Amino acid sequence: MMVLPAAFGMFVAGPMIGRELEDGTYRLSWSQSVSPARWLTAKLAVPAVLTVSGVSVLSAVYGWAWFRARGTNYPVQWFEPQVYGAMGPAPVGYALLCLALGALAAVLVRRTLPAMAVTAAAYAVVVVVMNAVRGGLWPMRTDTTAIGREIPYPSAASDVSVGWMTGGGTRLGGTTCVSADDVDACMARHGAVSNYVDYHPVSHFWPLQLIETGILLVLAAAAVALAFRVLRRRHA
Predict the structure, then answer these.
(1) Cα of 79 vs its chain's centroid, Å
(2) What distance in Å separates the CA atoms of residue 149 and residue 197, rounded to the nearest whole number?
(3) Distance CA 87, CA 190 (A)
(4) CA dist., res. 193 & res. 171, Å (int)
(5) For 71, which DSSP code?
(6) Burial, 114: exposed, middle or buried (Cβ in 10 Å; 0-12, 13-18, 19+)?
(7) pTM for the predicted model, two decimal places
(8) Where are the chain's structural domains?
(9) By the 8 A CB rule, do 86 and 65 touch?
(10) SS3 category, 160
(11) pLDDT one-digit tens code per residue, 8-56
């Protein structure tokens, strides 16, 4: 599922638009009273509808299968990228963004294969960045316990940060006393009195998904707007 959005951008928008610009066949459409903006709109409209429909169905089926597998020996949790990126509305956002990136790359490069390569590279950057910032898109829940006691938090939770906390609420990173010869003495010297863990429970799945999807749709809209602007400036 994580590869599917890249496929939409690489093999739909990029070749469909890039090939016409590369071969010059777009001139036939434009000579028939079709403006560049209208031409690009027509090239994007049908793929966008098919993308939303197809990816929505696949995402729903994957989500159904994953929830059916919960409680079995299936080890993959909801917060792992290969699962999180295949359920909910986020896959639709990624697919539409890839479609927009493919269109923008095709308009800028005007060659099919380079446009496909640029789309794939841009998508990879987006995936890496979103995986890195996802944990901060929604306020995390924090649990604390006295030092020496296990921190109780849901097994299906995504722990983001763990460490110690002083009596005044100052946080000490989880590696503060890892290399110390006497960990207890090290924690006492730093004034640590409790453990803390920041995490996302499974109830945060939908807020995280909706915020991430919103970001992706904004980026997609920006890419499409830029593609129209470049097309107008080059063929004014």
Answers:
(1) 12
(2) 13
(3) 43
(4) 10
(5) T
(6) middle
(7) 0.85
(8) 4-137+204-234, 141-203
(9) no
(10) strand
(11) 767 777 788 878 777 777 776 677 777 888 888 988 898 899 889 989 9
